[in-house]
Backbone:
């Protein structure tokens, strides 16, 4: 990303200088061209961009039978532990939390659709986490990353960027479903006009290099959204389960007690029944592909790479990601994974593990304060996600478009990740295309052996969705 905060940090007082020095030394903040202040702002921005998970994940898990309050507790604990570990151990600015999409797979496909007992379903999540951890600690995931061609990596970064932008546009209800044209532009209304105003303000702050621009943009958009449903407009489309709520910014209380009732409610032996092995495989490969895509995409877009061009601290990052997935089921939630919204903090200028640490610490108070999150509507995150998508698309210029056997799979990753609304499916199809194109072009020797294996797994995953 070209746009970074270059503000000079004010000289710390004697009382805080030792802390600045400690943080700088541990996280190597100065080495990566950042400041403590920038990292803190970036952590706040990442948290705000992803904080919806505290409410949305429990809402989805509730359809599987996990009490909403227990889902909130599990979500907060997994996000806190995973993100803090990512910051302190892997020293990476990437947030970890229960994954969106895979939670729907858990709740709707497995528990509701296939009638798998809830405790058994959590057992499947656990065993998938065990296999995921084995892959991480035996460096199988790093071997696969090294086998993915560089042009496809650029395509993954751009595809994820477009996917993030699409989510932002949908959060603003700016782009909507249209039976005639598949998708289309909504009729302008107070919600979309508010999102446009928030976007313009956020762009102005970013272009002017204002410290904390992305976070300030979310706050300003939230303030602009307060009148909707009160003095003009209607925000009920954002609350489909409670259509009587017409306001976007809502006060639903200050605190709620944590609920540990679902911790440990897991059937490990029942999940080993042969009939559940396909579910374990789907959890494993879905989590693997999504995490792989996010690591590669963020590393390429933000130049978070080491001297040999690999994502920085990738081995340690994958260890944390795997452990976070492993502890998810015992705590009572679907698998954790690394989050795309980390790109919001990275765009804010965050480059080190202090970003993830700050974001992780901010989750913990919401064991008790989760009702406060209703004050930040989805429309307030839209400008940040759209801009994040823009900056993550920067590597598109690095793709070798004249080498068609490399460019076509990269292009497919760019378009299929957002158009399938799935990182997993988009990347799987792009990997399959890469191998097939090399094969039919007589260039099979260009494909590393690991890529053949990954392509077979990708084909099996795509077949599972049909």
Residues:
């Amino acid at each position: 990303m070209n746009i970074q905060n270059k503000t000079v940090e004010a000289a710390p007082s004697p009382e805080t200088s030792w802390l600045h020095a400690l943080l700088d030394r541990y996280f190597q903040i100065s080495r990566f061209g950042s400041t403590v202040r920038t990292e803190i702002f970036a952590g706040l921005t990442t948290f705000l961009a992803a904080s919806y998970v505290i409410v949305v994940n429990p809402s989805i898990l509730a359809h599987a039978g996990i009490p909403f309050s227990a889902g909130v507790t599990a979500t907060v604990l997994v996000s806190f532990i995973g993100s803090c570990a990512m910051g302190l151990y892997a020293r990476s600015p990437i947030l970890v939390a229960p994954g969106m999409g895979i939670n729907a797979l858990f709740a709707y496909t497995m528990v509701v659709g296939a009638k798998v007992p809830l405790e058994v379903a959590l057992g499947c999540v656990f065993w998938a986490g065990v296999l995921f951890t084995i892959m991480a600690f035996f460096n199988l995931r790093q071997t696969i990353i090294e086998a993915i061609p560089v042009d496809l990596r650029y395509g993954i970064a751009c595809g994820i960027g477009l996917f993030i932008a699409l989510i932002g546009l949908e959060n603003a209800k700016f782009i909507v479903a249209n039976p005639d044209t598949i998708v289309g532009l909504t009729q302008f209304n107070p919600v979309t006009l508010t999102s446009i105003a928030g976007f313009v303000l956020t762009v102005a702050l970013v272009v002017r290099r204002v410290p904390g621009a992305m976070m300030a943009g979310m706050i300003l958009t939230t303030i602009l959204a307060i009148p909707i449903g009160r003095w003009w407009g209607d925000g009920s489309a954002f609350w489909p389960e409670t259509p009587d709520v017409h306001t976007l910014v809502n006060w639903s209380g200050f605190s709620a007690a944590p609920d540990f009732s679902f911790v440990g409610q897991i059937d490990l032996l029942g999940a080993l029944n042969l009939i559940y092995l396909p579910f374990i495989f789907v959890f494993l490969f879905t989590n693997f592909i999504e995490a792989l895509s996010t690591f590669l995409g963020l590393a390429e877009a933000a130049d978070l790479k080491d001297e040999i061009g690999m994502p920085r601290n990738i081995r340690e990052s994958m260890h944390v990601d795997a452990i976070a997935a492993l502890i998810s089921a015992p705590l009572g939630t679907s698998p954790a994974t690394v989050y795309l919204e980390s790109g919001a903090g990275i765009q804010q200028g965050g480059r080190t593990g202090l970003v993830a640490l700050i974001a992780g610490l901010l989750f913990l108070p919401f064991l008790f304060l989760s009702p406060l999150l209703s004050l930040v509507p989805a429309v307030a995150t839209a400008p940040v996600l759209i801009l994040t998508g823009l900056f993550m698309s920067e590597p598109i210029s690095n793709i070798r478009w004249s080498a068609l056997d490399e460019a076509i799979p990269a292009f497919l990753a760019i378009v299929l990740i957002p158009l399938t609304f799935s990182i997993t499916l988009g990347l799987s199809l792009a990997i399959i295309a890469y191998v097939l194109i090399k094969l039919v072009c007589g260039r099979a020797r260009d494909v590393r052996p690991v890529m053949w294996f990954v392509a077979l797994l990708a084909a099996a995953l795509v077949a599972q969705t049909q």
User: Anything to note?
Assistant: Residues 277-302 form the longest helix (26 residues).
